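#struct-help
A.M.: can someone run this one for me? Single chain, 414 residues.
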Amino acid sequence: MMHHEYWALARSDHDHVFSKPLSSHQSDYLQVASTMNRSIKILYPALCLGALLSFVNSIPNTSGSKQATDEFDLILFKNAVARNATCNDGSASGYYLWRNPVPSTKWIIYLIGGGLCYDFKTCKSRPAQLTSSAPWPKTGTWSGILSSDPSNKFHDFNKAVVIYCTSDLYSGDKPRTASGLLDFDFHGSYVIPALLDDLNTDMNAASEVLLTGGSAGGIGVFMTLPTLHERLSSHARVRALPDAGWFLTTMPTYSKDAVPISKQLQKGMPLWNGQPPARCRLALGEKNAWQCYSGPIAFPFLPQGFSSSDIMVLKAQTDAWTVSNDGVKQPFAGAEITWLMELAAEVRETFVLDKAVNVFSANCLYHTAEVMFWDQVKINGTTLGDAVQQWYFGNQTTTLVDSCLTPLCNPSCV
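D.P.: on it. Structure tokens below:
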């Protein structure tokens, strides 16, 4: 069986309540549960707010972070309706732009996250910031990989931060006239082409472009990489850095009341008329094309001519969005710890099956990291930021994957 066929055989027991008994070595880990629970309450008070976790990195930083020193200007697409470059409510989509005062041909394109919607209820309950450009401030600042602080080797890259207001993982192709009572545009697939057209002169002169993004934006990296590669690879080196876009469709949810990501994708794709990458879609067939939104499944179908050494995957082994979405709640006890351990083990296994060589995967409870925890999370003494920079600037194979088994066993997480 080919490795992508393994992932196509997603488990069918998504309504299973995970309650396996603890093995003898797993029971030893119960002693850390109270420490884990105290740490989570301190560091991740928003864990119970699953919706917040899915788009926390979308909000421009207005706190005056010492690393977020330069303002990005909001640019809305002109003639957006004619170009289909619209948000769910029909308003113009757009991006935040920061240009290096010293002319540069290096670019970061960052895709903001913010979850997805997959039916009338989940779409109509979306915050206005995720369905319209109207609430977005005129300027914003970001830290981490987007910082202009000289300690960040990406500080001199021009940066375009794409707002996310289409709810379709950057893949939709359905106008509001076809969405019935929902009255939503799902035009995520038009956003990157519109951005490249807006920045046409810059992109034609670009020497290197890093496509990155978090959460839904991490999935968006897989969705939009073929377009970027096709348009730019003849003259620029294109590389990819999906952050928290490596969702598993094979892991059963902890709670029978949770809606698994697999079901969300199966319902969402036809709602948006989603357009996942053609290579993956052709290989899996229309029935299973929804699985192309899963990083482990999309990975073997990177664009023709795109080297797997030019992509690095960032993924927390106990991803906070997954933990919240799948119904794992505090206090973490025997069954919860067992489920978290299996989740981490399955995440690690995907890297082996996909032969993903550039990976940073901490056994931590966070979601996106390249903006929020750039200098905080470490594996074997190397921060996430340093690992990414070693891969990108040093052209080094960078494989940092926690092998410890206890949930949150990485000391930099707590």
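A.M.: thanks! DSSP finds 15 helices and twelve strands in the chain.
D.P.: also worth noting: The first helix runs from residue 3 to 8.
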